Amino acid sequence: MLQIQKKKIKLLIPLLCSGVLVLSGLPVFGALTTYAAGGMQTLADITTMQQMTQQICSNSKVGDTKTLTDTRDNNTYSIRKHEDGNCWMTQNLRLTGEKTLTPADSDVKSNYTLPASSVSGFDSTNNYANQMYYAGDETNGAYYSWTAATAGTGDASLTKGEAPSSVCPKGWKLPPNSGRGSYAEFVAATGIANNAAGSTKIRSAPYNFSYAGFVYDNALNNVGSNGYYWSRTAYSSDNAYNLVFDSSNVLPASSHARYDGFSVRCVAVSGRESADTDIAVSVEPILTIDAVTDMHEIANTASVTTGTIDATISANTNYKVLLSAAEPDLINETNPEASIPASANVAAGTSAWGVATGNTTTPYLAMTSNPTEYPNTTTVGRETSQTVHKFGVGVSVSSLLPSGVYSTVITVTATAI
Description:
Blueprint: E1 7-13, E2 16-17, E3 20-22, H1 37-40, H2 54-59, E4 65-69, E5 76-81, E6 87-89, E7 100-101, E8 112-113, E9 132-134, E10 142-144, H3 146-149, E11 161-162, H4 183-190, H5 196-203, E12 214-216, E13 219-221, E14 227-234, E15 239-245, E16 250-257, E17 267-268, E18 287-293, E19 298-300, E20 305-315, E21 319-324, E22 330-332, E23 339-340, E24 352-356, E25 364-365, E26 377-380, E27 386-396, E28 406-416
């Protein structure tokens, strides 16, 4: 379970007396609210394809949708949790260009470089062709030979079973031929029959499988009349399983030659996929935060009061730390019309506050309501598994600022990458 905690900390600026801002013995801020992403995050909480996990899909409801960005090329895809309980792309993959896919961003065990787009080479003389072609049609997407669709792992040595890799984003896979996350399970759960009505249904919202056609013999064929979608399962040394449909048939477990250029849809399976072994242990990413601040100083109009926000993070996965505030300005708790604005222009004698950059040219950045990465320094925590991220804070006040307690709530978020 991916455990991500967001802890809210209250930044207080109290008591202005005769032009002096006094920060008098404030406690470490409590009332911390915890969110565990592995147990609570849904599709609504993520923005990229690569953030998807089986737990997030499990937490989402059937019918939930989201548009997510593929970080490999910044293409966006609509996602839906379908009636089979799994999360599916509702658009065809259109990853193109001679990109090197890595385990950090793709469903690969080792680096794989996508071939250049070409309509040539998809023919019977080249059964294990590493080929892809994109005609520029966003609806139909790109076309991949089975070797390319499986990121080079569907080669001549794989004559049965599932390819271990694919060109899908990290957290996603090509569907298997049967079982959890397969096209067979999908059409059964959605009531898509092998007839004209089923063909209409699979091509309609919310599923939106298109008549993309396929590439064969150096040409794009059957666009507007057939759809062909690879699975990750080999049928034989020459063929692989796929979904195929026309105006009157929907066949979720057909098979075709590996050199054909077919479309790709990726699936994120809920829960944990079954393993071939009798015993399997799953170790999920862990990411936790403990956040505090130390604004316990005396400030005046002649200088900038400084402090820090400390976020101690324990993790066994790569992550980034973000700060945000629903109300970025510091508001006077008894006089809401008075405030200290969130600003990059923090200077003595003015009312402003910001997060330090460590850059003398631009010393501060304004807090925003959107989760944002800010410069910070890091040290080892109490244990070697902990990293302390320290964000500098600067507050300046003018002599005209009304006295009182000025506050906002800063949300510290850690996101696995």
